[in-house]
Write a structure and sequence with these properties.
The structure is a homodimer of 169-residue chains. Chain A has 169 residues and is an alpha+beta fold. The first copy, chain A, has one domain (19-144): Electron Transport, Fmn-binding Protein, Chain A (Pnp Oxidase, Chain A, Roll). Chain A is 18% helix and 46% strand. In chain A, the strands form three sheets. A seven-stranded antiparallel sheet of chain A has the order 3-2-6-9-10-5-4. The interface between A and B is large, with 79 and 80 residues.
């Protein structure tokens, strides 16, 4: 009744997800990482969660600063996603993209599809990761473009369902 | 420093997500619901989470049965998703699709892109929802098809990024 990490990861490749950049600020230092493990938790009060690996530089800064912003990327931002996924480190990540400061102090991406500016209200440790639960204090929404997705180990975009379905739906 | 539920929901429409059916079984009764608030938590040990509204019929059954299976839908399964999102109730939901019983006893969808059969190891209450954290005991992966996505209030499919990007990427 146990599976190994590789079997688990093979399965998880099939769970497509929107790509976000989660940012924070602590003592004047900006920090951010690309994250797909983000989901809505409750609309009232507005609450979301993000799962962050404890080895990520942003992990401890989110804990200390008790704030973070989830920036949902459009399909024009694959290069920015790669930058925050490891291509660059620390403050250098922010030299691409247009960044402002959110209500809480966390960096907001000016051209995100949506930005959720959160106060950290709870954290749950689970194995290698921590679940950060955030109360959303500000939302900026910029619809009209398409999201960047990550599926089966690669970046993808969105298509209308009638364009892709040939089967039994 | 507070936003209303509608503003939050408008923002969340921009967070595209894979569509799953989360199932459980308790005292011979099968139960399931369509869910997009699912994400990977840790690969070692294999752990994932799903956020479930406390008003959902499956909520208490997951708590009592301490098991659930996350079935990732393909883009051929929009009709099945609607069925588990409210079109049908209770056991009647399972009369479409091919269902088997997983290692834990939860129903597995035979044509899911991936199925994660989980033991409930922790639950965190947060407003209207509960975060169910599951240790994954079995994974079935059936790659080669495309995922069903939910974005901006509607079902969508996946497209290669080069087919959709015309901008600055």
């Amino acid at each position: 009744m146990a599976i190994d990490a590789d079997t688990y990861k093979q399965g998880m490749r099939q769970l497509a997800a929107a790509v976000t950049i989660v940012t924070t600020e602590h003592e004047g230092q900006r920090c951010g990482l690309t994250a797909t493990a983000v989901c809505s938790l409750s609309a009232d009060p507005p609450t979301l969660l993000v799962c962050v690996n404890r080895s990520a530089a942003a992990h401890d800064r989110i804990k200390l600063g008790r704030r973070f912003c989830v920036n949902v990327l459009s399909d024009e931002d694959a290069a920015l996603s790669r930058r925050f996924a490891g291509l660059e480190k620390g403050e250098a990540r922010f030299t691409a993209g247009v960044w402002r400061t959110a209500v809480t102090g966390a960096p907001v991406l000016d051209h995100a599809l949506a930005s959720f500016d959160c106060e950290l209200i709870e954290q749950v440790e689970a194995g290698t990761h921590t679940i950060f639960i955030g109360r959303v204090h500000a939302v900026e929404t910029r619809p009209g473009r398409r999201p960047l997705l990550y599926a089966d180990g690669d970046y993808s975009g969105l298509a209308a369902l009638e364009d892709v379905v040939t089967g039994r739906a």
